[in-house]
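Is it possible to get an amino acid sequence alongside its tokenized fold?
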Amino acid sequence: MNVVVTIVFFAAVGLWGFAVYNRLLRLRERVKEAWRLLETDQTSEGARTVYNRAVDAYNTALDGFPANLVAMAAGFKAARRF
């Protein structure tokens, strides 16, 4: 019985870590998309706002638990605001 509980526990932790990793990937992709938008028109206040909001969401996600552990293991780095 203890083996089954241990396997279920590690499976749940693995799935949780995988979900966190996917969320960080999606947020990083939003930052990249916002940067591409900003590159086309750096004078646009709206593009800057979109980029900075994407960066804020990404960096906030990196600071929380367990994302900070996943980010450290996967090599995610904080993004800089415009």
